[in-house]
User: Fold this.
Amino acid sequence: MNPVHEKSSEKKIQLLTRTILSIFRLNSALLNGGNQLLREQEVDSTDWQVLGAIALTELPMTAPAIADEMGMTRQGAQKRLNKLKAGDYVFHVPNPRHDRSPIWRLTDKGKALFQRIMELYEMWMKRLLDEFPIVLDDLNAISGLLDKMEHTLANLDIKKDVLQLSE
Assistant:
């Protein structure tokens, strides 16, 4: 490999690593901020994610579908669904496609809670946007890059594409 290309590749890896570490820290800040936002509610950020997965889609949402949508394990989604069901925020109906994987829906209480959370969220995001100037083009570019990174990582065969190369 030529030294100029190698230096460029090393710099890209360093910048990508810095970006990934920033994403980790951002995720933590969002979860912590969400928990503060919801302090007076009966739910936390992870519950909010589950409520959102159900509220923001027209598709029937099973525990595995919620897990996929929100980047959590099926067991984690199920644990949250059980908690939300106990609080009367969600209920389930039979799934004609799978007897053991019911479809989850929001109760009226769950819909009201989600609406209140989204009102708080909108105030939080407006306050965040007040802190730094950002334009729609920037947000579109960032969102597109993150979507592409997520898609690429999800479709990369680590065993075949990375580990075999290191042998």
Q: What stands out?
A: The chain has seven helices and two strands. The mean pLDDT is 92. The beta strands are 90-93, 103-106. The two ends are 19 Å apart (CA to CA).
